[in-house]
Amino acid sequence: MKGAISVINQADLNETSIDKKESGAILIIGSCITNGKNLLYLSRFFRNYEEIRLVYFVGINRVSDIFKNKELKTNIKYGLYGPENSSFVEIETISCDNANLETPWKVELQFLKRTQAGLDEPSEFIESRIETIKSFSNINYKGGSDKIFYPSLSNSELEIRKNSAFFKDNSYYGNICQSDVYFTIACVLNNMRNNSKDGLCQTTFVKNLLDPFVFSRFNDGIIQASILRAAKNEELNYSISQSHSFEILSLIGTFIKHINEYQGEATIEFLHALAIGKLRLNKSHYLLLKDQLEKIGDERLSFTRRRLT
Prior knowledge:
By secondary structure, the chain is mostly helical. Helices cover about 40% and strands about 10% of the residues. The longest helix has 16 residues, at about 180-195.
């Protein structure tokens, strides 16, 4: 009927859905976009509809970097009447890493399974952790919210304290889960990767590392664990710098010394990052670290200690 509003799912859209001679506007709604491929497809599909104006309305735009985001908008907005032929409206823009093939928990699960298979006696600690990670893919959970990090040696779950630098006020305290903190830190790191001037942007000739001081400045265990999980391997490769490697070694040594206090609550996360080869030290520093760990007789540390090389 003329003047009526039609709602069409993209999956049902075909050449006969809308008459080529139709005039007016089409509102294209997306709750969330990660790369904009569907929007590019629709832009191409409606190219021959000369009397129709497109308006893109997106709830959350989470394209990974500002350059890709700018390129996407340029491509879908350009048309018969120039670069502003179509409109693009977004409610929130969050620059976050969209990689989902080798998540930190998939890597962890593979590591734990290999470690368990190589033990003479199965480890209850490892088996429990394996089951926890598997539960994240349960249809009832659809992802992990808490217990996504290793607990402290006293079995306390890592949690964020008040007055965090990453939140505007203290209203978050007691109202957010571990995955909220992880997502926040992951977005911060991704923004740093998009900063080619003094951030974590990597090139063939320039390698940028996370300053070891970061782990002293942000001393909540959950923040440290989030950084370790969200960082890229090359951002934690301190083996390329003797001085930076020693700084990290000293920090981890302090955490081990205070392993039963809040200062050392993320120690297992640091050891896990070392064991899987994500956090890397100068070769000579591993022996010093293993000597420190030998003094602590705890199964939860021994499974990572054996993997330190």
